[in-house]
Amino acid sequence: MYSIFVQAHGNECVLALQGLRQLLKVRGKMVLPFLVPQLTSPPMTAAHARALAALAEVGGHALSSNVPTILGALMVGTVESSESQV
Questions:
Q1: What are phi and psi of 19, to 5 degrees?
Q2: Which of 70, 8, 64, 44 is nearest to 19 (CA)?
Q3: Which SS3 state, helix, strand or coil, does residue 1 take?
Q4: CA–CA gap between residue 81 and residue 13 (Å, rounded)
Q5: Cα–Cα–Cα angle for 74, 75, 76, nearest 5°?
Q6: Which long-range contacts (CB under 8 A, 24 or more apart) does 1-8 make?
Q7: I need a labelling partner for 25 at 20 to 30 A (CA). Which of 32, 33, 71, 85 fits?
Q8: In the prediction, which pLDDT does 49 show?
């Protein structure tokens, strides 16, 4: 499912993201240990950030132990992005 999300464009991306949300609702504790490292690995892309935001909406308690990892990756991505624009 993650590979579909990464390769998807436009409407396919929306559908893949909806699929990830549904999977997270049903099997959050089983899926997050795989998804979080994939979505937080460098470089932090806009697509990964959008996916993390969308998953945060449905992640609930299963996501709470991953918050430091997610925030750290977003902060590093923000710094790298602003440095590359200078």
A1: -65, -40
A2: 8
A3: coil
A4: 23
A5: 95
A6: 2/34, 2/35, 2/38, 5/47, 5/51, 6/47
A7: 71
A8: 87
Residue that is written with structure tokens 């470089």 in the block? 43
Is the pLDDT at 8 greater than 70? The verdict is no
Distances (CA, A) of 28 to 74, 76, 79, 86: 21, 25, 29, 39
Entry pTM:
0.73
Question: Residue 20: CB partners within 8 Å, gap ≥ 6?
Answer: 1, 2, 5, 35, 51, 54, 55
Greatest mean pLDDT among 9-13, 41-45, 57-61, 71-75 lies in 71-75
Q: Give CA–CA dist 2/8, Å, rounded.
A: 10
The domain ranges of the chain are 2-85
CB 16 within 8 A of CB 1: yes
